[in-house]
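I am writing to request your help with a piece of structural work I have in hand. Here, with my thanks, is the record as I have it:
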Amino acid sequence: MKKNNKKDVEIKIMGMTCATCVRTIENSLKNINGTINVNVNLGAEKAFVTYDPKLTAVLEMKKAIEDAGYQYIGVEGDQTIDMERKIRAKELKARRNRFITGFAIGIPLMVLMYLPLSLPSFAPYGMLILTTPVFIYVSLPIFKAAYRALKNKNLSMDVMYSMGIGVAFLSSILGTFEIVLSREFLFYEASIMLASFLTFGRYLEAKAKGRTSDAIKKLMGLQAKTATVIRDEKEMNIAIEHVTIGDIIIVKPGEQIPVDGEVIDGKSYVDEAMITGEPIPSLKSAGDKTVGGTINKNSVIKIKALKIGKDTLLAQIIRLVEQAQGSKPPVQRIADRVVSYFIPSVLAIAVASFIIWYFILDNTLLFALTRLISILVIACPCALGLATPTAVTVGIGRGAELGILIKNGAALERAEKLTAVIFDKTGTLTKGLPEVTDLVSLKFDNRHLLKLAASVEKNSQHPFAVAAVNKAKDYKQKLINVTHFDTIEGKGVRADIGKEEILIGKKSLFTEKNISLPSELEEKIQSLSSSGKTISLIAVDKKIIGLIGVADALKPSSKSAIEELKKMNLKVVMVTGDNKQTANAIAKETGIDDIIAEVLPEDKTNEVKKLQKKSEVVAFVGDGINDAPALAQSDIGIAIGSGTDIAVESGDIILISDDLLDVVAAIQLSKKVMKRIKQNLFWAFAYNTILIPVAAGLLYPFFGITFRPEFAGLAMALSSVTVVTLSLMLKKYSPPVKLKGGDQ
């Protein structure tokens, strides 16, 4: 199928409770002619569908979802957020009213049944009259869900629970009228408490699940709804959809910057924390880029719109996070496999338990029936189904808040297993822009030397020239006009300032011109060159008066990031196309021991392969442009963003800021999320492996311990709540390096 025939859509769905719900919806959508790929995320409550628009449409998907018995909210966006909020509030209120009503009747009945009282003969009829409307009110949604599951040929948790509470209530009715069963089979309080506990558990679970996507909702909330633009020399407030590229936008203090743009007038601090994770506002002035969704803090600025709509950085982030939250890491396959066999296995255990206790061990029918009901209601595949998606959803959302965009769940799992990290040098470890690092003057003060050099070099586009001019701007120096500027190809430049000839360039240029090198500079040149710096000599009227040293300076965080990675026992390698002398100088400064120098861009991929052949799990950290092949070859490609330009296709993890400590933070976050997934799976398995045997009566022959059905229902409800709550704790997680490195 041609790529341009594919279309992606995210559909918000409500009503899912466990992994079997996921499978039901996935199967329903896959059966539609034209769907290419379907992935349903229980934690995010979304279906991610790739389809051919020529063969099917969203309306058909809506029908399939609703026919399966679930609630179609709409295609993901602002409107679905509002609709979801209203529906969730309505559903939570209904569940709350149900379990409150159930407990109000069930608890007094349970207390009454526990008291050593002799009930009058008419008491069972009174219980029947009192509990029937309450039982129907509380448990009707459970029976409806079970019916829908069976209609779609699925054994869901609702089917099991309906069997449990249905058997309990039906036995009570038969016992009341003494049909087949005696009056000792009164489970009225148990049936109501079971339905109430399940409703209570799902109330807590739904409330918690509603918070798993808070991060994406916050990001969507950052999108401005209007913008103040200048058109026909007038200010007008227009809807954000009507802003066009090139519009001049006025942003006042406290307002959101509506689109990605460039400051053309004014100066102000801008809070970019929700985009980059950096808490300190950044000063923006003419020429600086701005990001839509950030907050202007203290002054009026005018910006020119450069990117709008889906092309803005914020829109890219939202799209990326939504897709990532819908992905499944390989570890989820374990839970999916278990869940597919879980319910049939539990049904088999329940029936076997009944047969063993009643027919083989010759126990009472009441005891055997109680064991059957307890097993049916204590099993909790919901916890297994929620263990992975809730942690992935919350963890990836937390990453977005920190400026770390993790593209899929598989990247989380691979990042946890990393053994080696390869860094590109230029633009990754270094700033990628040469800077003046040293000024040595023999005649004037250093500032005047720089002024002379920058006045000449302002006419050139050479990296050295750009560095000299930028340094002069930092010192706010007024440059001198020069005449007769000329380039000496590959060696330097010359120009006249007044009657004086200024010559700037390599040592070889001065040798050719028979200009002698002062002895006091020779040692300095050797020292700077060995440090990987580029030296340009400066002469006035054929007499050398000083030198300027230029280097591609390290990013402030490079050294500390390497130190942190080494503490994590990761092998750190630097790969660069620079000569060995420059590479060694950078490596020495950062603390990197393994250096691969003089490597062509296309050969970086081979260096990744060499490490992988040695069984290393490799991350490649690059700028996401010329490093794309190496990023793709590595087990984890980490692309460094540059404010507004994100190579979203290049890496598995994209760092919005160019702070290299975020590389460490991304690995620490991945490890934390994977640890939480494993904890969730442990507790989900533990609940089932420990409590199902107890409910079956395994401990009864030895310790006389049994599980009453209502307490079994409570345990089942708490299992899902435990898993979701553990996942939600990731919302407050900050990688240790962020706390240490100044995430204040």
